[in-house]
Amino acid sequence: MSELWLDSCVRSGRRLATVAAFGVCALLAAPAPAQQPPVGNAQQGKIIGYTCLGCHGIEGYRNAYPDYAVPRLRGQSVTYLVTALQEYRDGQRAYPTMHLQALSLSAQQMADVAAYLGGKPVTAKPVPAAAVPAAAQVCASCHGSNGIGVAPMYPTLAGQHESYLIRVLHEYQSGYRQNPIMSGIAHSLTNAQIRIVAAYFSHLKPGLHTVPRPYTRWSGR
Ligand code: HEC
Ligand code: HEC
Q1: What is the number of the ligand 1 atom nearest to the C-alpha of 105?
Q2: Which of the four pLDDT bands, split at 50, 70 and 90, describes residue 23?
Q3: Is the pLDDT score of 51 beyond 80?
Q4: Ligand 2 binding pocket includes 169 (Cβ within 6 Å)
Q5: Could you tell me whether strands 68-69 and 62-63 are parallel, antiparallel, or unpaired per DSSP bridges?
Q6: How far apart are CA 54 and CA 57, in angstroms?
Q7: Could you tell me which of 87, 85, 60 has the C-alpha nearest to residue 71?
């Protein structure tokens, strides 16, 4: 069913204002809005997101045991950020702190905080195939030769912390993170290949950034 049809439905509904025409349209159109994910409001997200910046708003902040850098979120696909939060909430990702953070958020709050933290998605020119290391070529079909996800469901890897990319690929291998696509791909990688792809994607520019923290008395400026 095309959007055009629905659009004309709505317009003819308004124009004719006949109960019959509008009724049929409303019946057919009704399921669509229910399936729409909530639209994020970055201003609202900024309020919720304040607590997130305790980890995600400090450049170079690291997770202890195991030691790796907390992921950069600014410039990330907002759709992907929402998916990631749902996965922490529902247990496909086992990281305990993020599980608790995600559990406390409604669907609307997830959309809001993702819109705030992600901001404007980063864009970049494609990288010529010859410049992409062999181990990273298979990744490019989803994560882009330039490390920018080719569709909103694919995370951007460009500029992400190298230690985080290595950690996460091991999480997919161990089952600590479960994803039908990435688990299979991660299993096919050797440790040497993981180091190569992590180095390649983390060094690409333009890329992701740490969310800047608003001025507080803790920010030391
Ligand atoms: C105590 C530190 C801490 C706090 C507070 C925190 N996070 Fe995280 N976050 C992490 C770590 C560490 C990871 C990576 C976990 C893993 O290995 O999956 C992460 C991962 C994420 C990811 C996945 C990113 C990706 O590239 O897949 C998202 C999205 C996220 N956090 C959002 C949030 C939001 C929203 C909040 C606030 C409501 C928040 N975080 C609060 C430490 C934190
Ligand atoms: C068919 C598409 C596809 C291919 C090919 C692919 N990925 Fe992914 N990748 C995804 C999807 C989808 C996700 C999100 C999974 C999730 O929600 O946990 C993802 C997630 C990731 C993440 C987690 C990002 C984050 O911010 O936490 C990393 C790292 C990653 N992929 C690396 C790679 C590497 C390296 C390759 C090549 C060896 C690769 N991927 C190939 C689809 C793909």
Answers
A1: 38
A2: very low
A3: yes
A4: yes
A5: antiparallel
A6: 6
A7: 60
Q: Which of 159, 169, 153, 146 is closest to 72 using CA atoms?
A: 159
Which is nearest to 75 in space by CA: 160, 187, 173? 160
Which pTM does this prediction carry? Answer: 0.87
Domains annotated for the chain, with CATH where assigned, are: 3-35 (no CATH), 42-202 (1.10.760.10)
| Token pair in block for residue 183 | 């688990």
Residues whose CB is less than 8 angstroms from the CB of residue 77 and which lie 6 or more positions away in sequence, other chains included: 118, 121, 149, 152, 153, 154, 155, 156
The first and second tokens of residue 31, run together, are 């399921």
Q: What pLDDT, in 10s, does the model give residues 112-134? A: 999 999 999 999 999 999 999 99
Q: Which atom of ligand 1 is nearest to the CA of 85?
A: 29
Residue with tokens 């992907």: 80
State in Å, rounded, how far the first CA of the chain is from the last one. 55
Per-residue pLDDT of 57-103, as tens digits, reads: 999 999 998 999 999 999 999 999 999 999 999 999 999 999 999 99
